[in-house]
Write a structure and sequence with these properties.
Strand content of chain B: under 5%
Order of helices and strands of chain B: H
Radius of gyration of chain A: 14 Å
Oligomer: heterodimer
Helix content of chain A: 55-70%
Strand content of chain A: under 5%
Order of helices and strands of chain A: HHHH
Distance between the termini of chain B: 33 Å
Radius of gyration of chain B: 11 Å
Structural class of chain B: mainly alpha
Shape of chain B: rod-shaped
Structural class of chain A: mainly alpha
Distance between the termini of chain A: 22 Å
Number of strands of chain B: 0
Largest sheet of chain A: none
Chain lengths: 90, 27
C-alpha cells in the first residue's frame, strides 16, 4: 500500500474501533463525544502544524492525545490498549 | 452494517490516518 493512504485493513480496524467505542458508551454519549473531540482537535492541530511548516512546540503530541484518552477511558483498559495501536509513536 | 454519522466517519478517517502514519514511521 502507498504510505500516503490508509490500507483497507487500517480502515477496517478504525471502523471496528469507532463502532466498539460507540457501543461501549451507549449510556454515556458524552464520553464518546469527548473522544471524537480529542481526535478532531488532534487532526486540526496536525494540519495547522503542516501549514505552518512544523512550528516548534505547536500541535497536540501523541503523548498528549494518549493521556487525554486514558483519562476518558478510565477502567476500560482494552479500549485504551487498542487505541495505542493507532498512535504513530505509542 | 454500521450506523455512522458524518462525525463518526471523520473519527474513522483520523484513526486510519494515524494508523497509516504509524506504518510509515515503522517502515
Amino acid at each position: 500500500c502507498p504510505a500516503s493512504d490508509p490500507s483497507p485493513v487500517e480502515f477496517d480496524s478504525a471502523i471496528s474501533y469507532v463502532n466498539k467505542i460507540k457501543n461501549r458508551f451507549l449510556d454515556h454519549p458524552e464520553i464518546y463525544r469527548s473522544f471524537l473531540e480529542i481526535l478532531h482537535t488532534y487532526q486540526k492541530e496536525q494540519l495547522d502544524v503542516k501549514e505552518s511548516r512544523g512550528r516548534p512546540g505547536s500541535g497536540m503530541t501523541e503523548d498528549e492525545v494518549f493521556s487525554k484518552v486514558a483519562s476518558l477511558f478510565k477502567g476500560q483498559e482494552d479500549l485504551l490498549s487498542e487505541f495505542g495501536q493507532f498512535l504513530p509513536d505509542a | 452494517s454500521y450506523d455512522f454519522t458524518p462525525l463518526d466517519s471523520s473519527a474513522v478517517y483520523v484513526l486510519s490516518s494515524m494508523a497509516r502514519q504509524r506504518r510509515a514511521s515503522l517502515s
